[in-house]
Design goal:
The complex is a heterodimer of chains A (158) and B (151).
Chain A (H helix, E strand, L loop, with lengths): L3 H10 L9 H9 L3 H13 L3 E8 L8 E7 L6 H8 L5 E7 L9 E7 L2 H15 L4 E12 L10
Antiparallel strand pairs in A: 2-4, 2-5, 3-4
Chain B lengths: L4 H12 L7 H9 L3 H13 L3 E8 L7 E9 L4 H9 L4 E7 L5 E7 L2 H12 L4 E15 L7
Helix pairs in contact in B: 2-3
The chains are: A alpha+beta (158), B alpha+beta (151).
Chain lengths: 158, 151
């Protein structure tokens, strides 16, 4: 797992990334370790799947994606793995999550579809529904986005 | 902001990932056939313009002991801005959207224990205008990928 140096690293590298020729040296200096140690630890975290990536996330509306919807599907439990395997490779689907459904909201598979327009998004959802032979699903477009952020892990004590 | 073909190429590369090497921007410049200063300059400009929402490290919440939940709230429309604002203020909340449904406010949050979740949900339930709150825990993640290849 992580030790206290890892935790210092996790806190620092989620913050402002120096857009300079030697960003890792700058951050290593701030943490008080060598650049070699910082890179070695980051590489280890990356290999372990703990660090998903070092890089950029785009504002997707600015990148031209205006039709984005949360699609909730009711999939029989025995078909979930097969359906997820069909959805996961689709480049216009960013998230495929299984959730425990609620008695008032019986959908168990949650996907986020992205398209340039709402119409295109709906066409893709309908085509997917036909492909997988599922009729119970809901498409929830965002009417207003109030927040989109990355949780800054280990900033809190809880 | 008008993105040039070079900007788009650069965005596609840095979305995939910045190398964990001593001179990452020079490495990317070599890959794209340009120089380090140009890469740093364009990344800085696109970040300042908001095309790049965040630049840095993205950790996997699960492997650091967090569990994700999707919460749907049915709230009287006139109270929605107030409830959405209160939800936004919690650092555990990662996404919060008003959606076209009887459950009109949907948010995701990451917590380390269910007691923390219960306390937050109780706060939502007690807000004026809130009719109902339901929550769905993540049990498996088949895909998490927030890259948009730009053509």
């Amino acid at each position: 797992m992580t030790d206290t140096v890892d935790q210092q690293i996790i806190r620092r590298v989620q913050g402002e990334f120096p857009l300079m020729p030697d960003p890792y040296r700058i951050m290593a200096d701030e943490i008080g370790i060598s650049q070699e140690e910082l890179l070695a630890r980051l590489n280890r975290m990356k290999a372990a799947g703990m660090l998903r990536k070092m890089g950029a996330v785009l504002q997707h509306r600015m990148a031209g994606f205006h039709g984005n919807a949360l699609c909730c599907w009711r999939i029989p439990v025995e078909r979930v793995n097969d359906v997820a395997a069909i959805m996961a490779p689709c480049t216009f689907i960013s998230h495929v999550y299984l959730r425990q459904p609620h008695e008032k909201w019986p959908y168990n598979l949650y996907t986020v579809f992205h398209s340039h327009t709402r119409e295109e998004c709906l066409e893709r959802v309908e085509a997917m529904a036909q492909d997988i032979g599922v009729t119970e699903y809901r498409v929830l477009f965002s009417r207003k986005n109030w927040k989109r952020s990355q949780l800054l892990l280990l900033h809190e004590t809880t | 902001m008008q993105l040039t073909p070079f900007d788009k190429q650069l965005l596609n590369v840095i979305q995939t990932g910045l190398p964990l090497t001593p001179s990452p921007f020079a490495d990317i410049a070599a890959q794209l056939g340009t120089d380090e200063a140009t890469v740093i300059d364009r990344v800085s400009a696109m970040k300042a313009q908001g095309v790049i929402r965040r630049f840095g490290a993205f950790f996997d919440a699960d492997s650091l002991g967090y569990k994700g939940w999707l919460v749907a709230v049915k709230v009287t429309p006139e109270f929605l801005p107030e409830v959405a604002g209160a939800v936004n203020a919690w650092p555990q909340v990662t996404h919060n959207d008003e959606r076209d449904n009887e459950y009109n406010l949907w948010f995701t949050l990451q917590v380390r224990d269910e007691a923390a979740l219960a306390a937050l949900l109780l706060e939502v339930e007690r807000m004026p205008g809130v009719v109902e709150v339901i929550s769905m825990p993540t049990t498996e993640r088949y895909k998490v990928n927030v890259e948009f290849q730009i053509e």
